[in-house]
Amino acid sequence: MTPQRMHMANSYDPSAARSTLPPSAAALLERRERVLGAPYRLFYEEPLEAVRGEGALLFDAAGRDHLDVYNNVPAVGHSNRRVQQAVADQLGRLNTHTRYLTHEVVDYAERLTALFPPHLQQVVFCCSGSEAVDLAMRITEYQTGADGWLVTRHAYHGTTRAAAAVSPSLGPNNPIPRHVVLVDAPDQLREDPAGIERAFAARVTDGIETLRQRGTALAGLLVDSCLSSDGLQLDPAGWLRSAVDVVHRHGGVYLADEVQPGFGRLGTGWWGFPRHDVAPDLVVLGKPMGNGLPISAVMGQPSLFDRFGRDVRYFNTFAGNPVCIAAASAVLDEIEDRDLIPHAAEVGRHLLDELRRLTADDERIGEVRGSGLFVAVELVRDRAGRAPDAGAAAFLVNELRRRRVLISASGRDGNVLKLRPPLVFGHRHAERFLTEFSAALSVLGAPG
Question: What CDD domains does the record point to (predicted)?
Answer without folding.
Answer: OAT_like
